[in-house]
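Sample intake sheet
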Amino acid sequence: MKARKKTLQYRRKREGKTDYRKRLALLKSGMPRLVVRKSLQHMRAQLVEYHADGDRVLADASTAELVKKFGLKKARHNTVTAYLVGLLIGKKAASRKIKCAVLDLGLYRPVKNALVYAAVKGAVDAGLDVPHNPEVLPPEQRIKGEHLKESEYETVKSRVMKA
């Protein structure tokens, strides 16, 4: 007799895109989720709220927005730009009267000093209350861009803070 393959019920779980146990734990908190995702060239941060008919995005920030609105010209996938994206999402959250959020890492492995935590540091510096361990945040020298030769990031940061 042939053994039948067991198939998973949910497509996203089957494809390895969603961990539903982790998602349920985040949703039980009742707070909006700070979702930080990275691609090969860009960073994106969103504040997402659960609704029965589907999640709703409350605020969104990305490196593409930093390029168009704030004049970022250099690399868009490093610690400094991740911090600026977090700062921008934190400012947008403050304008929408959102005071706290819980970090949603998705399937990313929590690694100390990762780009995701640089975005969390930016959101916290902008006034958003995100529960985190301060030990996992990148050092201040990396966030300021002192390791880079020419840094235009301070001017972009001042423009984000004024917006």
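Comment: Helices lie at 11-14, 20-28, 63-70, 79-95, 115-125, 140-144, 153-162. The chain has one domain: 15-162.
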